[in-house]
Amino acid sequence: MATDPAAGRPIGDYALLSDRRCAALVSPDGSIDWFCRPRFDSPAVYGRLLDPDAGHWSIHPAGEYRSERAYIGDTFVLRTVFNTPTGTAHLIDALALGPSIEAETGVRLRLASRAPRATLRVLECTEGEVTIDFEFRPRPEYGLVSPVFTNVPGGILATGGPVRFVLTCPVPLDFSGDGTTARFVLHQGEKLRFATQSAGLADDPPTAWTPEAVDAALEETLIGWQTWSDAHPLWDGPLPHLVRRSVLVLEALRYQPTGAIVAAPTTSLPEAIGAGRNWDYRYVWIRDASFTIQALAAAGSTDEAIKFFEFITRAAAQYHPQNPLQIMFGVGGEHELSERELAHLRGWRGSRPVRIGNAAWLQPQLDVYGELLDAAWQVWPHLTHLDAAARRFLTGVADAAADQWGRPDQGIWEMRGPPRHYTYSKLMCWVALDRAVKHAEVIEVEQRDAMIFGPDIFASRELAPEDFSPVKLIPGWAAARDRIREAIEEHAWKPGIGAFGAAFDGEDLDASLLLLPAVGFLPGDDPRVISTVDVIAERLRDDRGLILRYEPGLDGLDGEEGSFVMCTFWLAQAFALTGRPDLALKAFHEAAACANDLGLMSEEIDTATGEMLGNYPQAFSHIGLINAAVAIRDAAR
């Protein structure tokens, strides 16, 4: 039986649908409770995920039933099976991808490049008879708009707000004040096709589809996803089914027109219930770049990795080395992502506020320099050309790392408290300069005067121009890189706890330091690395074996967040790189157990209940699974 939407259905109950422009979340009750159109970050049309009155579209049996679900093959076409006392019905859900082949030329098209902006739902009774309840209640603009419904040939038209929807519907509907409903009986062998299409106010509304058109669109979608998956190599490491699904999730979260990958398709699913830790993740973080590209390359998605790298460099290209690099962008490359609250929405399980936009776009985070240049390092063998503007931009990124590494910042976790000298930020500035030195000939750094780098606050004197080559940047980058290493080894190593600390001040821990061997700063057999991994595993690990990002009480926010799935995969990766494969595999399986029955993972796990928390599905978690699997496989070899 359908769950009361006001109770806040568990996050892990939802399935993901995608047409690589937007995403939908579907419950086991056959209800689409989250859907933003026309982009991942557009206002929600169905928002029951965050408020019972914010819109949904449900198709499920009346009375008692049990449901089970699975994706069809390696696709995002979902089959939900409803078992009732009187019969069985199957519901197939998908966001239409459009054709995979150009009909006239036979040329293969980019996946979803001609997506028709249509939601497909096909209901079939396979045994006995089933009474079905149908509700179509779109609420554009995050639930603010109650559309006006009118009959059109083959269905209804919903008008209100900036988008109009045509519902293809083969059954008669009852119109109420806030939506449309129906109850009907489906007998064995009967099949009904439903679809919605959208159009802007300036466009003519689309016409309802025929049953044949819905079937054809569904077949195109199945073929599109499966063909894309088949074009990628099979995984020969641990948990191949979860690795394969994780690769598919990254493609599902990739915005087709630009190649951008959103961190998650949702906003304001809380990191702690009722604590205000609710953020909008429907954007693209530079922080994720090197991890994402590493995962895509390992999975054989080289073209996708290059496209993502090109998006990041183009979106960030308006940049001056003396100013902090913006850390995140919209899926179209937008820079202005101002945060605001939607006071009319109650939030998931009452977790207010619901936020759209993300104020972190204004934060300085020095780690992004390393993640960007490390991403370049990983895709470089596959880049056939790099234009002059891109070369100047990457040179400027290296300059910025050399100039700014000594400043405090908000760190990788976007702390909203006072800035600190975070070790991970310094580490990634080291990575930026290390990769820049190695890339220098390819970047074709011009012979010019080196920039005059700022004061070194960790030295007894200010750096002078003679510390850097006046002829080429390369020696200057190398000198700054070496000074960062000295500073980290002097100020971040905490003998009292036997680990590298979260920041140069204090002795608190941060799980990001599990990446010390992964980025090549120190080898895996260095005693300080092994000790750091062990101390983090002891002090930041919960009873389920999952890892917290950092020690509680230090982020300046109310409540305590859950354990972080990505950090647990980092632990598995660190165990593999420090030569302890058994511990690596154990940590890997503990993190992988966070996936639901469809192989989808959220950002965090409630330490008390084991329930999913945070935005979902979370690209970072799926990236962590792939990269940890690679490290474990390579260690075994």
UniProtKB/TrEMBL annotation:
Organism the protein comes from: Glycomyces lechevalierae
Signal sequence, start to end: none
Molecular functions per Gene Ontology: trehalase activity
Keywords: Hydrolase
Name under which the protein is recorded: GH15 family glucan-1,4-alpha-glucosidase
GH15-like domain location: 242-629
Domain (Trehalase-like N-terminal) ranges: 9-170
Pfam families xrefs: Glyco_hydro_15, TREH_N
Any GO BP: trehalose catabolic process
SUPFAM superfamilies: Six-hairpin glycosidases
